[in-house]
Design a protein that fits this description.
Keywords: DNA-binding, Transcription, Transcription regulation. The protein is mainly α and 214 residues long. The protein has helices spanning 2-32, 39-46, 50-56, 60-80, 88-104, 120-145, 149-175, 188-211.
């Protein structure tokens, strides 16, 4: 029994150390930017050694992607439980909005690190992460629509549109925030809504244009 309790305490200590590293990294990324933050600064602020850091993470890049992946996972979960009668784009928007609001309630952290200055390798990794997520979202939407070839085309287009709108909303939020300040997460729901409204306005213009050709 003693060895089991000791093992449990050890695992809890590891979990606390990992969470402390993540929390400190978020704060430093927000205060001074991702490119300017070093592993040494993170470990000093967390009061652990660099050797300890590398037991949990291969590099500081891993810390940047954690919040983004957690956000993606939350959106996928919300999308799976949306009412099946909802239109695909509406369901995706509501899933994103619910996930953002969950982040504001501190269920998890909304990814709020500026995308510029990340370096080629991390930028490519970020792009691959988005592409992988887009494929998963498209698959969930296709299942909701019934899975036929026509449904898959609609699901693919909807996933690409919705995720592009999300990225545009993030980009707009960063552009409207001075470089030395961290974007305010509470402003993001409205930014997301505005981005989706803009996208739908453009789709409506295209629909009317195509209708005149009939």
């Amino acid at each position: 029994m003693g060895s089991i309790e000791q093992g449990g305490r050890r695992e809890r200590k590891k979990a606390l150390t990992r969470e402390r590293l993540i929390k400190v990294a978020r704060e430093l990324f927000a205060e001074q930017g991702f490119p300017e933050t070093t592993v040494q600064q993170i470990t000093e602020a967390a009061d652990v050694s660099e050797r300890t850091f590398f037991r949990y993470f291969e590099s500081k890049d891993d810390l940047l992607l954690l919040d983004l992946v957690a956000f993606f996972d939350r959106v996928e979960f919300e999308l799976r439980v949306r009412p099946i009668e909802e239109e695909p784009l509406v369901a995706l928007y509501q899933s994103m909005l619910t996930s953002v609001r969950s982040g504001l309630d501190e269920s998890f952290e909304i990814p709020m690190v500026r995308p510029h200055g990340l370096g080629l390798e991390l930028t490519n990794q970020l792009a691959r992460t988005y592409i992988s997520w887009e494929l998963r979202i498209a698959e969930i939407l296709a299942q909701r629509l019934g899975g036929s070839s026509d449904c898959r085309l609609r699901a693919d287009v909807t996933a690409k549109l919705g995720i592009s709108v999300l990225r545009a909303a993030f980009r707009e939020l960063f552009q409207n925030t001075p470089e030395h300040l961290r974007p305010e997460p509470a402003a993001f729901p409205q930014q997301l809504e505005c981005a989706f409204v803009s996208a739908l306005d453009e789709c409506d213009l295209l629909r009317r244009l195509l209708a005149t050709r009939d």
